Amino acid sequence: MTLRSLGAAAVVGLLLCAAAASACPLCNPTGTTFANEVAQADLILYGTLSNAKGDPTGAGKGSTDLAIEVVIKSHDMVKGKKTITIPRYVQPSAKNVKYLIFFNITNGQLDPYRGEEVPADSNLPKYLQGAIEVRQKDITTRLRYFFDYLEDKDVVISSDAYNEFAVADYKEVSDVAKKLPAETILKWLKDPNTRGSRFGLYGLMLGHCGKQSDAKAIRELLDDKDRSFSSGLDGVLAGYIMLDPKPGWDYLVHLVKSDSEFPVKYAVLRTARVFWEFRNDVIPHKQVLEVLKILMDQPDIADMPIEDLRKWKVWELTPVVLGYADKATHNTIPINNRAILKFAIAASWADTKNTVAANFVAEAKKKDARRVEFLEELLKDEVKPATDLKPAATKPNK
After folding, report:
1. 231, 178, 184: which is closest to 207 by C-alpha?
2. Is 270 inside any structural domain?
3. Which domain holds residue 9?
4. What is the pTM of this model?
5. Per-residue pLDDT tens digits for 131-176
6. What SS3 state is found at 118?
């Protein structure tokens, strides 16, 4: 049993906090970062485990000694100690490994809730101490520190460095990206051993620090049949478009018009969102909407662009969106019907003159009033319903 499994409730709570924050639009956070978790822990130690003794009364019960090599975060309970006993049975999975262990102190007792097994020659202590040092500095300085560890040979370190970028918002990532070495990022993109989960971030960063000539290199990678960017195609596309907008956008349109599989369509949609929400200086909203119209016409993904149009309040496309309710290719898919109805409700609230949307909602209520009421309740926090105007009071006859 690993220490990671011992504090599931604590870890889940941290994950929820991380998920609630805004994040890089083309990254996928995989958990809380070490630097953020430092504030949650009462004690953090690094060292070697030995003398593991199991307790037959229950899995994981027992004790294990930890020889302390580095104190990342201290506590009075361990001051001056070189070895402590952890109230858990933890058998290292291999020789020449060490552990980074996070503790809470509960009722005066050590409560280890997270443990990371790392190679004995890992730079984890140095990395984590540096992460703590930059924690109070500006976001650009912090991310620049983590950039140097994105491809560290220790997967624990590189994963944490990636998460620091993944939980940052677009502006924070773009601000630091402008100052990063483009040649390093392009090298990572070209390396067939680079993890696919990184392509989205690397492509996005290259779009901010690269030159137009780097767009050619990205295109060569996209055209390479021996390479696959299915996991981070959105970021690679975004970088290509930022560096050379016209051919880059033409390539994106070609992808969505071709007989693409769902992951490619979804990558195109995620890329389009970036240019609508953050970079309409590169691709105007009108061009983004044209791509969303193409995506809406494809029933396996139609609900997603319709949801985006609702969130972006693009009510002028009401006839287009509601028109799909009459298409057999779309109306036989419940999630599409739901997205269309939500759009109609929001549009009718946002614009009292939108009779097309109002009539659509009225007809839906005749068929299933409870369903409409349920969706209206969901949307109240997103779109404020128009207040019904009371008729003016009439003056009494004299």
Report:
1. 178
2. no
3. 3-123
4. 0.82
5. 988 988 999 999 999 999 999 999 989 999 999 999 999 999 999 9
6. strand
